[in-house]
Design a protein that fits this description.
With 418 residues, this protein is α+β, with helices and mostly antiparallel strands. The longest helix is centred in the last third of the chain and has 33 residues. The protein is elongated. The chain starts with a strand and ends with a helix. 23% of the residues are buried.
Length: 418
C-alpha cells in the first residue's frame, strides 16, 4: 500500500508556494515536488489535506489531488503485482503526467542534476572546489559517451564506479591519487542528492578508492631559498614580481589565493589579519622583515591590492623560469601509483616548483628552525596534526643528516688517536 499526503513547500511564505506529495513506501517517506500546484498558505487546509474555499476553483483543485493520490497508488499496486519495485522516479513521472495533463518529458538525467547541484554549490563552495566538481562532470560526460551510457542514479553502482576508475586510469591517464579525488567528489554529489531525496540509491557508500601514496612535498631548503632571493632579475620585472610574491608566501605560509586577495587594510602593525578564502579561518599572521620589505616595495597600488599577483597559471609558468635561472636543479624524485604500479619520476627541482611549494617551504623551514607544530598550525590555519605530520617526516631526514655529520665530527679525533 502507498500512502500519500500533501504539504506546502514553504509554510511561512507570504505569497504562493508549491505543494509536494509525501509518499510512504513501506514506511519510507519519499518527496515528490509539484511545481505547477501553487497556493498561498492561507488557502491551504493542512489538517484536511485540501484547498480551502477561498482558493479559486477549489473543488476542481481538490479533485486533482485525489486523482493524483489514486494514480500513485494504482501504479504502485500494478508494479508490485508484476514483481517490480516502485522508486521515486516512477512517482515523479506519474505526478508530472497527472498535474500537467500530458505525458511528462521524463525525470532529469543524472548529468543534468549534477549541473544543477554544481550551480547550487556556488553559494557556499570556493571557486577551486567548483572547478573540481566541473572536472568530475566533464569526465563523467566523456565516459558516458565512450561507453554509450545514459547514466542514472540507479545505474551508479559499484560496477559503474570500477569501470569509471579504469577509464580514468587507462584512457585519461590519471594517477591513483587523482582518480581517488574524482571518486571522492562523485560520492559527495551522490550523498548530497540522496539527502535531498532526489534518489534512493546508496551504492555510493560502497565505492572503493585505489591504493595511492601521498604525494611528496616538494619544498625549498634554506640555501635554495637564498639562491632565489639573491637572483638578479634586473630588466625582467614580471619575473622579479613573481619571485617576490613567492618569497612572500615562503615568509608567511599563506595560500596563493589569500595572497592574491590581500589588501593594505588587512596589514596591521607587524601582522596580517585575514579570513582565508579556502577555509574561512580567521588568521593573524606575523610578518618577517623580508615580508615587510616586499609589501613596502609594492605599496600604493592603484588597484587596491597589496601585491601585484597575476593568475595562478601564469605565476606557475614564470616560477619555473625563475627557479631554473636560480639553479634549483637538484634531482628530485616523485612517486605515484598508476593502477597496481608504483611509478617514480626524477626531474630537476625547478620543474616541480609551483605556488604551493612556498607554503610547504614555510612549514618545513619553520619546523626545522625549532618552531613548535602548534604554533605553525596557528599561523597557517592547519586544523590537525595529520597534515603537519607529513612535514615532520621531511624534517626527520634533516635530523638524520645532521646526526651523521655529528657522528663524523666526533669520530675524527678518535680515528687520529688510533
Amino acid at each position: 500500500m502507498l500512502r500519500t499526503k500533501f504539504y506546502l513547500t514553504d509554510g511561512k511564505a507570504t505569497g504562493e508556494t508549491a505543494l509536494y506529495a509525501a509518499c510512504y513506501l513501506e514506511g519510507v517517506r519519499k518527496k515528490v515536488y509539484l511545481p505547477t500546484l501553487l497556493v498561498r498558505p492561507d488557502q491551504w487546509d493542512a489538517k484536511g489535506q485540501k484547498y480551502r474555499r477561498n482558493f479559486d476553483n477549489y473543488p476542481e483543485a481538490n479533485k486533482l489531488l485525489k486523482l493524483l493520490a489514486d494514480e500513485l497508488e494504482k501504479s504502485h499496486v500494478e508494479r508490485t503485482a508484476r514483481g517490480k519495485t516502485t522508486n521515486v522516479d516512477d512517482l515523479r513521472a506519474i505526478a508530472a503526467r497527472v498535474t500537467a495533463g500530458a505525458p511528462p518529458a521524463g525525470p532529469a538525467g543524472l548529468l543534468e542534476e549534477m549541473g544543477n547541484w554544481i550551480e547550487a554549490s556556488k553559494r557556499d563552495k570556493s571557486a577551486a572546489t567548483i572547478k573540481c566538481y566541473v572536472t568530475l562532470q566533464r569526465h563523467l560526460t566523456a565516459y558516458a559517451k565512450v561507453r554509450r551510457l545514459q547514466p542514472t542514479f540507479a545505474s551508479l553502482d559499484s560496477a559503474f564506479c570500477e569501470g569509471f576508475k579504469s577509464y580514468l586510469l587507462r584512457t585519461v591517464g590519471l594517477g591513483n591519487a587523482s582518480i581517488n579525488n574524482q571518486v571522492k567528489n562523485l560520492k559527495v554529489f551522490l550523498a548530497a542528492t540522496f539527502e535531498q531525496e532526489l534518489h534512493e540509491f546508496a551504492h555510493f557508500k560502497r565505492f572503493r578508492k585505489l591504493e595511492a601514496v601521498a604525494p611528496e612535498l616538494v619544498y625549498l631548503t634554506r640555501d635554495e631559498k637564498e639562491q632565489l632571493y639573491l637572483l638578479n632579475l634586473t630588466g625582467r620585472p614580471y619575473l622579479e614580481q613573481t619571485r617576490d610574491i613567492f618569497l612572500f608566501e615562503c615568509e608567511t605560509g599563506l595560500r596563493f589565493s589569500d595572497v592574491r586577495a590581500l589588501r593594505p587594510e588587512q596589514i596591521v602593525g607587524g601582522y596580517i589579519l585575514l579570513t582565508t578564502i579556502k577555509t574561512a579561518d580567521l588568521l593573524r599572521v606575523p610578518l618577517s622583515p623580508l615580508a615587510q620589505s616586499i609589501l613596502a616595495r609594492y605599496a600604493g597600488r592603484r588597484d587596491g591590492k597589496a601585491l601585484p599577483v597575476i593568475s595562478n597559471q601564469k605565476t606557475n609558468a614564470y616560477l619555473k623560469v625563475v627557479a631554473e635561472l636560480a639553479g634549483l636543479d637538484t634531482p628530485t624524485t616523485t612517486t605515484q601509483h598508476k593502477g597496481s604500479q608504483r611509478v617514480a619520476t626524477t626531474r630537476p627541482k625547478w620543474e616541480l616548483v609551483c605556488t604551493h611549494t612556498a607554503r610547504r617551504t614555510f612549514v618545513t623551514l619553520a619546523l626545522e628552525g625549532g618552531m613548535r607544530p602548534e604554533v605553525v598550525m596557528r599561523i597557517t590555519g592547519h586544523k590537525d596534526y595529520k597534515t603537519l605530520h607529513r612535514y615532520l617526516k621531511i624534517t626527520d631526514a634533516v635530523v638524520q643528516g645532521e646526526f651523521e655529520q655529528y657522528v663524523e665530527r666526533q669520530a675524527a679525533p678518535l680515528m687520529r688517536a688510533g
